[in-house]
Amino acid sequence: MLLEQERLKKNKIPGLNTGIEIRKTICAICEGSSSSCGINAYIKDGRVIKVEGMTEFPQNQGTLCAKGNASRQYIYNKDRIMSPLKRKGKRGSGQFEEISWEEAYETIAEKLLSIKAETGAESVVFGAGFTKWLRPFAQRLGISFGTPNFATESSTCFYATQIAAGLTYGQWGGPDIKNSNCLMMWSANVFGTGTAGAKKLIAAIRNGLKIIEVNPAVTHLTRYADIHLGLRPGTDGALALGLANVIISEELYDQSFISKWTVGFDEYKAYVADFTPEKTETITGVAAELIIKAARLFATGGPSSIKTSASPTVHHTNGVQNHRALIALSGLTGNFDAPGGNYVVPETWLHVGTGVELRQKQFIFPRDLTDLPPRIGQEAFPLWSQFVNEAQSMWLPRQIDSGQPYPIRALVAFGYNQRMWPGNDYLIRMFDKLDLFVNVELFMTDTAKLADIVLPACTSFERSELRLYPGNHVILTQPVIEPLGQSKSDIDIIFDLARRIAPDDRLLNQGYEACLDWILEPSGLTVEKLRQHPSGMTVKDAVMPGFRKYETDGFATPSGKMEFSSTALKEAGLDPLPTYREPVLSPISAPEPAENYPLVLTTGTRLPMYMHSRTFRNEWNRRLHPDPTVMMNPEDASKRDIGIGDEVILATHRSQVKIRAILTDTLKPGIANIYHGWPEIEVNHLIDYDYLDPISGFPGFKSLLCDIRKA
Predict the structure, then answer these.
(1) How far apart are CA 313 and CA 319, in angstroms?
(2) 131-169: buried (b, 16+ CB within 10 Å) or exposed (e) per residue?
(3) Can you tell me the distance from the alpha carbon of 29 to that of 484, in angstroms, rounded to the nearest whole number?
(4) Multiple choice CATH, 591-710, 3.40.50.360, 2.40.40.20, 2.60.120.200, 3.40.50.300
(5) Which CATH class is domain 173-343?
(6) pLDDT tens per residue, range 185-210
């Protein structure tokens, strides 16, 4: 009997004999809006001893990626911060002393209220980096305090695509893959990020879904693609206009939709006439015959939909216009908000659209932003402020530096990472100008080392959070273990601060669960009801919106129609059509710099075992790809006498890094690619801090000029 019990314990079998219990939660390492997977956490003596995918969870259906499987290394990592810390050495030295929570809160509150009294609440910024689940609460805290400045990593993630969609349709829709016959995957690789969706995509392909992949690199998806369009980075807009040229010249477009529901088509038609397949080939590097083939398949093989990732198409100095050009293909072919096309579902919670009605916007904004001073970046990027209810984070260091139109004196941040800024050494210098920098963090990151106060947060295993998923699945998780050390849920920190700096916000001061019940009220759900479903619940009576809603509601644009020629851009004095401009730094636009830096550099693509810079500290993940690497074509390497694994110098006009080379023909000659987030090298030092898209303020991470030489 004792031997049997030992065998059960060794194999981590749950039961009374082993003292092992399975508790339900989610993995929030990826932190995408709907990419958090269901977890069965095996708990013994208050510790997580094993994790498995939750089979009944619709998002991942029992699977886990490399990041989720390494959850224990994430939870029990040696870099976890276990108590509140106060800086005692020089900024960046990493010298801190432990303080109590009460001292931390009082220090923060006293300084914030003092700044508010002296120069206004707008001098304080509330920010969120990696974390998304807490954002509605953090933004409300800032607004109740009196500042319009809530600034997040979405300033360099997906908001530029939202601007492009707003300018064109008023709102974008996700691909209705289950009803699609053709899917254009534009720089979206589910095998590298959002891996839970790969299984469903492969099943759809096996059921006959045609794939057009647009990507500068050959990826894991390419083997499943019917057509692969390998373009030069930054030329997405030209390729989209070339596809439109074929569709229009061969009269494959939806003439009924165009005549009834669009404005500016004649100007657009005249503009794309110049982007013949042959000319588009000279710009993009994609063969003319492939452009023709892809255009015909998308226009005639429908219903057709488009899936893009959050940022690759907009991480260019021409990003918004690039993205406008490619999403215009949906309306051009009559596939917008149509079955099997790009289906518009209004956002419910954290950028996820479902049929479940919540009060997200009403909660976030207890007062109108127009009643507050202008946000950071509002003057530099007025269209940003028209379509996004946040400050533009990329402008934060500029305003700290200039003090205009008002000074920025404090930053209270949740999971901030200075590596999300181009020219991030400039931001680091600006931290020295702040009166107070607070960072709420799980780990002692390089950014946390720059803070005055560091507050210890906890993982998704140690907290409660609300999540909604496509398909109307809802979960309110409960902690499966106690918070480690003195760490707290970010939400608890927000509500503790609210009592001190926003005491007049009656709802916020009622606490987390009262706020959740208020948010959930229109759905009929409650905290108590959701607690009864630890695996989550699918809301059966949720009513999804119909298709082609524009036929009754019109489009949420100034004209009430799809705008090939944007009213807002024209009023702002910008090109109203989705015009193509070369990236500021490209072999065509910058021929003189290109003589010394002849390769096009893309940065920021992901490896499937890493998420930003966080999981690099997990030993299991790190073993899978231990060294920072730059990918280059063997032809380019041969010219430089570079072999596989050689140490090389990757240089731009601004800076350089030492790194190892990977030789691969998955990249065309003339292109180099470096993966995202390596803590040992400062890739963003290679990029000028003002290398930004003029419409969105997004950095041009994916179209630079560089050279590589043997170290």
Answers:
(1) 6
(2) bbbbbbbbbbbbbbbbbbbbbbbbbbbbbbbbbbbbbbb
(3) 17
(4) 2.40.40.20
(5) alpha beta
(6) 999 988 877 777 888 899 999 999 99
